[in-house]
Design brief:
The complex is a heterotrimer. Chain B contains 11 helices and 10 strands. By secondary structure, chain B is of the alpha+beta class. Chain C has 3 domains: about 110 residues, Acyl-CoA dehydrogenase/oxidase, N-terminal domain (Butyryl-Coa Dehydrogenase, subunit A, domain 1), CATH 1.10.540; about 110 residues, Butyryl-CoA Dehydrogenase, subunit A, domain 2 (Beta Barrel), CATH 2.40.110.10; about 150 residues, Up-down Bundle (Butyryl-CoA Dehydrogenase, subunit A, domain 3), CATH 1.20.140. In chain C, a hairpin with a 2-residue loop joins β2 and β3. The interface between B and C is large, with 50 and 52 residues. The complex binds flavin-adenine dinucleotide (2 copies). Chain B: One of its GO terms (molecular function) is short-chain fatty acyl-CoA dehydrogenase activity.
C-alpha cells in the first residue's frame, strides 16, 4: 500500500504568452495558469500505481499566492489531498530554493514511499528539482523514467537514455522524475471535478518550515526573460522567368552561408 | 469574459475543452462527411459524466448545474455542432422532460440509465406533414384498457435510430388539437416501432435524424408522462430549456468560426496588406464579436435561472431569438471574410456555416420566441 | 404567368426558359449537387434550344439576346439550379471581353467555338490575386510572333471542361495593374493543363478549377485590345456580368420564396390549420417577397440603362449587391421557416442556402461592389 507524493508546479500556459514585438518582453497579462504538463503525467502515474495496488496519493505544490487556484484542478485528477505553499518568495525561487522548500514541507508533513516529479517544468524546464529534492532528503533519485513498478518496498524503474533504456531498482523511499511518454493523463470526469471540492487541502506557511535565510536565497538570479523572433527578410524576386528567380534565391542563400 | 464562473465551472469548462481536443477533434471532419453517429464519442461523454451532468445525484446525475452543462455544450460546439446536438437532444429535451414531468417511479426507472450512458434518449415531436403529397401522419394514441396504442409517423427525430428510449408526443384526443397532445416514454425496442429511414441534412451531420413509424405500438399507461393533454405545455418548456443549450451551441460555433476568420484575415494579403486591416473586415469582426459576447451573457444568464429553479421562459426565448439572428449572420460574414477559399468544402468555416443553421432552427410554434416573449410582456 | 413589363419577345423567351428549367433542371438538380459532378447533360439539352450562348451576336451565328432577355433567362436557370446558371453565366462572361475589345477575326474564333457548342471560361483570379486582381503573377512574354504564358490561375469556372478561354496575364510586371493584358487561349495549346478541382460547399455541379500555364505559346493576335488594357477590359466585363449574377440570385431567392409559400400553405399546425395563417409566418413571407421583387427591379433597371447605352456601372454594382444579399437572406429565411424539413435533404431549400452564399463572393465580393459604388459616388 504505497504512499505516494506528487510535486506539481502551477505555471502560466505558454500558449497564452505573447511576445511584444518592440522590446521582445513577454506579455503574460492574458495568460491563464495550468498544471505543468509533465506533472500531469506524474499525477497520472501515481494514480495508476495506487489503482493496481491500493495506497494513497497526495499532492504538493509551491507557488505564488495564485497557486490556490490550482487545488481543485489537481484534486480532480485523483490525489486525495493537497498541501500548498503560497508565498511571494516563489517569484525569485530557483531550483535550489524550490527543492529546499519542497523538502522541508515533506519532512514536516509526512513520510512517503515514493515521490514523483515531472521531468521538467513547462516553463523553466531546468530538470533540477527532482534530483535536488532527493539529495536534500538523502534518498535515491531516478530521472528520465518511462516505466515504474512497485514490489513491496522495492521500486523498479525503466530510464530512457538516448538510444537505450536502463532498468534500475532502489529501495524506497525515492524521488522519481517521469517522462511524458510514461502514460497519457486522463481527462477528469465531471464527478471527479465535483468531488474535488470535498477533498482536503492544507496550507503550509513558508514561515513554519523553519528554513534559514540562506536556504531561501536563490543561487541563480534571472536577469531578463525575452522572446526571440525570426525576422523575415521580405525579399521578393519578381523576375518574369522562374529560372532567374531561383538563381537569385540560391545566390543570396550562398551569400548568407546557407549553402 | 467577466461573467463570474465558479472554480468548478471553470474546471468543467477546461475538462470539456480537453475532452473536445482529445475525442472530438480527430473525428469531426470525417463525421461530417459520412454522417455516421459517433457512438465511441457518446461512450466517452458518458464516462466523463456529460450525459447527466445537471441532473440530481439521486438519479445518477452529477448535479453540476445547468450553467455547467451549457459551458460543456459551448466547448463541444467549438469543434462539432453535431456532437453538441446529440447531447442536447438526449439531455435537454428527452432527459429533462422525464425529470421535470415524470413520476417518481418513471424517474427512478429511466434516468439512471440516461445518466450513465447505458441508454441514449431522443425527443420525437415533428411529423412529416409538410412533405408534399405525404398527407398527415399524425401520431394518434388510442386508449385500450391499461395501454395506449400508438399509430403514425415521426420525422427528423434527432438521435432517431440510435436512441434506446424516446419521448414521443401523440394525440390522445385528436379533436382537441393542441390540447389533446400527450407525452409518452417509449422503448426503442417496443414491438411495432421501426425506423423508416435516416434523413440527410445540410449540417450537424453525425447527429442522426430518422423517420420513425409507429404501427400499433402498445405503450403501458404507466409510461404516460405528466397528465393526458399536457403535451403542449411539456413541449414548450422542454424546447425553451433546450433553447438555452442551443444558444450555447450557437455561441460555441460562432466563436470558433470567428477565431478562424481572424486567423485567416491576418494571413490573407490583398492590395499589399492583410485583409484584416480593411475597416470593412474589421467592422464585420467587431460586430460578430459583440454579438457573440452578448449572446454568451444571455445564455449564461438564462442557464443560471434554470439552475436556480426560477422562471426562465422569457429569457430562454430571448436567447433563441437573439442567437438565431446573430449566429446566422456571423457565419455568413465569416465565409465572406474568407472569400472563395472559405466557400471551399475543405475549410472548416463551410462546415460551421452549415452546422449553425441547424442550431438556430425553431421547430415548434409552441416555443416561437417572439410569442413567448410577447406573452410574458403582455401578461 | 407572363411578366407584362417585358416585351413580347422577352416573354416568349421567359416561357421557354421556364419550361426548360421545369423539365430539364429541377428534376435532377439535387442529384447533381449530391454527386458534385459537372452537369454536362443539362448543357447538351440547353444547346438544343440555342440558349447556351445568348450573348453571341446574330452576325456571328448566336441568338444575340438583349441584356434584359439574358437576365430573364438566367433568372429562370438560377431558379432551377444556381450551379447550372453559373456555368451558363460564366460562358456569357467569358464572351464579354470579345464584345468589348475583340477584333472581327477574334470574334469569329471565339464566338465560333461557343456557337458550335464549346464552352468558354474567364480566368482572372489567382491564388494571390482575388479582389486585388491587378496583382496578377501570371506573365506573358512576346517571343517572335508568339506570346508565351506562364503562371497559375484559380477558381476558374467551367475551365476544366472549357474549349476556349480568356486568360489574364501581365505583359509588364513592373507596371502592376497597368501591365495586365487579356488573351484568348484555346484548351489544346501545349503547356495548358487543368490543376486541382475545387470542392465547394455549394454550386457543387459547377466546375471550378485551377489552371496551370507552362510555356503556353499562343499567336500574337490572341491579345485582346492593347497591351496593358487587361484591367480595363476585366472591369468592363464585370460591369456587364454583374446584373447577370444578380439575375441568378433573384432566381434563387424566388425559388426559396415559392418553396416557403408552398410549405406555409401545406403544413398544418397541431390545430390542423396551415401555418401560413399565422401572422408570424405570413408577414415573414411578405418580407421575403418585398426583397425579391425589389432585387428583380434593381436588376432590370441596371440592364435597361445598359441597353439604352448610358453608364450603368454603379447601378450594376448596386443590383449585384442587393440581389445576392437577398438570395442569401431569403434562402436562409426559407430554411428557417421550413424548420427541420427545410434543413434536411428532403427539401431543396438547404441547397439554395449553400448556393446563395457564393453569389456574394464571386464576380467581385460585395465589399468590392461597395468600392465600385462609392468610387462612382465620390468621383
Ligand atoms: C529559461 C530559463 C533557463 C534556466 N536555466 C537554468 C539553468 O540552466 N540552471 C539553473 O540552475 N537554473 C536555471 N533556471 C532557473 C531555475 O532553475 C528555475 O526557474 C527554478 O525555479 C526551478 O524550477 P523549474 O520550474 O525549472 O523546475 P524543474 O526542475 O524543471 O521541475 C521538475 C519538477 O519538479 C517539481 N517542481 C518544480 N517546481 C515546483 C514547485 N514550485 N512546486 C512543486 N513541485 C515543483 C515538478 O514536479 C516539476 O515537474 C532557468 C530559468 C529559466 C527561466
Ligand atoms: C465558385 C467560384 C467560382 C469562381 N469563378 C471564377 C471565374 O470563373 N473566374 C475568375 O477569374 N474568378 C472566379 N472566382 C474567383 C472570385 O472572383 C474571387 O473569389 C473573388 O474575387 C474574391 O477573391 P478571394 O476569394 O481571393 O477573396 P479576397 O480577395 O482574399 O477577399 C477576402 C475578403 O476581403 C475582402 N476585401 C478584399 N479587399 C478588400 C478591400 N480593399 N476593402 C474591403 N474589403 C476587402 C473581400 O471582400 C473578402 O471579404 C470564383 C470564385 C468562386 C468561389
Amino acid at each position: 500500500m504505497p504512499r505516494i507524493l506528487v510535486c506539481y508546479k502551477w505555471v502560466l500556459d505558454e500558449q497564452d504568452i505573447k511576445i511584444n514585438p518592440g522590446d521582445l518582453s513577454l506579455d503574460s497579462s492574458k495568460a491563464k495558469y495550468k498544471i505543468s504538463d509533465y506533472d500531469k503525467n506524474a499525477i497520472e502515474e501515481a494514480m495508476l500505481l495506487v489503482e493496481s495496488k491500493e495506497g494513497s496519493v497526495d499532492a504538493l505544490t509551491f507557488g505564488s499566492d495564485k497557486v490556490k487556484q490550482s487545488l481543485k484542478d489537481v484534486l480532480s485528477r485523483g490525489p486525495g489531498k493537497v498541501d500548498w505553499i503560497g508565498d511571494t518568495a516563489f517569484e525569485q525561487a530557483d531550483a535550489f530554493v524550490t527543492a529546499n522548500v519542497l523538502a522541508a514541507a515533506i519532512r514536516k508533513n509526512g513520510s512517503y514511499d515514493l515521490i514523483l516529479c515531472g521531468e521538467g517544468s513547462s516553463d523553466s524546464y531546468s530538470q533540477q528539482v527532482a534530483p535536488r529534492l532527493a539529495a536534500i532528503l538523502s534518498i535515491p533519485a531516478i530521472t528520465f523514467v518511462q516505466k515504474i513498478s512497485i514490489d513491496g518496498s522495492r521500486i523498479i524503474a525503466t530510464r530512457k537514455l538516448g538510444d537505450c533504456t536502463e532498468v534500475v531498482e532502489v529501495a524506497g523511499p525515492a524521488v522519481l522524475s517521469v517522462l511524458p511518454e510514461i502514460n497519457k493523463p486522463r481527462i477528469p470526469s465531471l464527478k471527479q471535478v465535483m468531488a474535488a471540492a470535498k477533498k482536503p487541502s492544507q496550507e503550509v506557511k513558508l514561515a513554519d518550515l523553519q528554513l534559514g535565510a540562506e536556504e531561501l536565497q536563490p543561487k541563480t538570479i534571472t536577469l531578463s526573460v525575452k522572446g526571440y523572433v525570426m525576422n523575415r527578410k521580405n525579399i521578393l524576386y519578381k523576375e518574369a522567368n522562374q529560372a532567374d528567380n531561383v538563381a537569385k534565391l540560391v545566390a543570396s542563400l550562398a551569400q548568407e552561408g546557407m549553402c | 469574459m467577466s461573467y463570474a464562473l465558479t472554480e468548478e465551472q471553470q474546471l468543467i469548462q477546461q475538462s470539456a475543452r480537453e475532452f473536445t481536443r482529445e475525442y472530438i477533434e480527430p473525428i469531426a471532419t470525417e463525421m461530417d462527411r459520412t454522417g455516421i453517429h459517433p457512438s465511441a464519442v457518446v461512450q466517452q461523454m458518458a464516462e466523463h459524466d456529460f450525459l447527466g451532468l445537471y441532473l440530481p445525484e439521486e438519479f445518477g446525475g452529477t448535479e453540476a448545474g445547468y450553467l455547467s452543462y451549457v459551458l460543456i455544450i459551448e466547448e463541444i460546439s467549438r469543434m462539432s455542432g453535431a456532437v453538441a446536438s446529440i447531447l442536447i437532444n438526449h439531455a435537454s429535451l428527452a432527459a429533462y422532460t422525464m425529470y421535470r414531468f415524470g413520476s417518481a417511479v418513471q424517474k427512478q426507472e429511466c434516468l439512471p440509465a440516461l445518466c450513465s450512458g447505458e441508454k441514449l434518449a431522443a425527443f420525437a415531436l415533428t411529423e412529416p406533414g409538410a412533405a408534399p403529397g405525404v398527407g398527415s401522419h399524425k401520431v394518434i394514441a388510442t386508449k385500450e384498457g391499461d395501454h395506449y396504442v400508438l399509430n403514425g409517423h415521426k420525422c427528423y427525430v434527432a438521435n432517431g435510430g440510435v436512441a434506446d428510449i424516446y419521448v414521443v408526443f401523440a394525440l390522445t384526443n385528436p379533436e382537441a388539437g393542441a390540447k389533446g397532445m400527450s407525452a409518452f416514454i417509449v422503448d426503442a425496442k417496443a414491438a411495432g416501432l421501426s425506423i423508416q429511414r435516416t434523413i440527410g441534412k445540410m449540417g450537424l451531420r453525425g447527429c442522426q435524424s430518422a423517420e420513425l413509424i409507429f404501427e400499433n405500438v402498445m405503450v403501458p399507461q404507466s409510461n404516460l408522462l405528466g397528465a393526458a393533454g399536457a403535451g403542449m405545455k411539456i413541449v414548450k418548456e422542454a424546447q425553451l430549456v433546450a433553447s438555452v443549450a442551443e444558444g450555447a451551441q450557437v455561441v460555441g460555433i460562432a466563436q470558433a468560426a470567428m477565431e478562424d476568420a481572424v486567423k485567416y484575415g491576418k494571413q490573407r494579403v490583398q492590395f499589399g496588406r492583410p485583409i484584416a486591416a480593411f475597416p470593412a473586415i474589421q467592422t464585420m469582426l467587431a460586430e460578430m464579436a459583440t454579438h457573440i459576447h452578448i449572446a454568451r451573457l444571455a445564455v449564461y444568464d438564462a442557464a443560471s435561472l434554470i439552475e436556480k429553479g426560477e422562471d426562465f421562459m422569457k429569457e430562454a426565448a430571448m436567447v433563441k431569438l437573439f442567437t438565431g439572428r446573430i449566429g446566422q449572420s456571423a457565419l455568413i460574414d465569416v465565409i465572406q471574410i474568407e472569400g472563395g477559399y472559405g466557400y471551399s468544402q475543405e475549410m472548416i468555416a463551410s462546415r460551421f456555416y452549415r452546422d449553425i443553421k441547424g442550431a438556430v432552427i425553431t421547430e415548434s410554434s409552441a416555443a416561437f420566441p417572439e410569442k413567448v416573449i410577447a406573452d410574458d410582456l403582455l401578461a | 404567368m407572363a411578366d407584362m413589363t417585358l416585351t413580347h419577345e422577352q416573354q416568349k423567351l421567359q416561357a421557354l426558359a421556364r419550361e426548360f428549367t421545369a423539365k430539364h433542371i429541377i428534376p435532377v438538380a439535387s442529384e447533381w449537387d449530391e454527386k458534385g459532378e459537372f452537369h454536362k447533360f443539362i448543357l447538351e439539352e440547353v444547346k438544343n434550344i440555342g440558349l447556351h450562348c445568348m450573348a453571341v451576336p446574330k452576325e456571328y451565328g448566336g441568338p444575340g439576346c438583349d441584356s434584359v432577355s439574358q437576365s430573364v433567362v438566367m433568372e429562370q436557370f438560377g431558379y432551377g439550379c444556381c450551379a447550372f446558371a453559373t456555368t451558363l453565366g460564366g460562358n456569357g462572361l467569358s464572351s464579354y471581353p470579345l464584345a468589348i475589345a475583340g477584333t472581327d477575326e477574334q470574334k469569329q474564333l471565339y464566338y465560333g467555338r461557343l456557337v458550335a457548342g464549346g464552352m468558354g471560361g474567364f480566368a482572372l483570379t489567382e491564388p494571390g490575386a482575388g479582389s486585388d486582381a491587378g496583382s496578377c503573377a501570371t506573365t506573358a512574354k512576346l517571343d517572335g510572333d508568339k506570346w508565351v504564358l506562364n503562371g497559375t490561375k484559380c477558381f476558374a469556372t467551367t475551365c476544366g471542361v472549357a474549349n476556349i478561354m480568356v486568360v489574364f496575364a501581365s505583359t509588364d510586371p513592373s507596371k502592376g495593374v497597368k501591365g495586365l493584358s487579356a488573351f484568348i487561349v484555346e484548351k489544346e495549346r501545349d503547356g495548358f493543363s487543368v490543376g486541382a478541382v475545387e470542392h465547394k460547399m455549394g454550386i457543387r455541379s459547377s466546375n471550378t478549377v485551377e489552371l496551370l500555364l507552362k510555356n503556353v505559346r499562343i499567336p500574337k493576335n490572341h491579345l485582346l485590345g492593347n497591351e496593358g488594357e487587361g484591367m480595363k477590359i476585366a472591369m468592363k466585363t464585370l460591369d456587364m456580368a454583374r446584373p447577370i449574377v444578380a439575375s441568378m440570385a433573384v432566381g434563387v431567392a424566388q425559388r426559396a420564396l415559392d418553396a416557403a409559400v408552398a410549405f406555409a400553405k401545406a403544413y398544418l399546425d397541431v390545430n390542423g390549420k396551415p401555418i401560413g395563417m399565422q401572422q408570424a409566418v405570413s408577414f415573414k413571407l411578405a418580407d421575403m417577397a418585398i426583397q425579391v421583387e425589389a432585387a428583380r427591379q434593381l436588376v432590370r433597371n441596371a440592364l435597361r440603362l445598359k441597353d439604352a447605352g448610358v453608364p450603368y456601372t454603379k447601378e450594376a454594382a448596386i443590383a449585384k449587391t442587393f440581389a445576392t444579399d437577398t438570395a442569401m437572406q431569403v434562402s436562409a429565411d426559407a430554411v428557417g421557416l421550413m424548420g427541420n424539413y427545410g434543413y434536411s435533404k428532403d427539401s431543396f431549400v438547404e441547397k439554395l442556402m449553400r448556393d446563395a452564399k457564393v453569389t456574394q463572393i464571386y464576380e467581385g465580393t460585395n465589399q468590392v461592389q461597395r468600392i465600385v459604388i462609392a468610387g462612382q459616388l465620390l468621383r
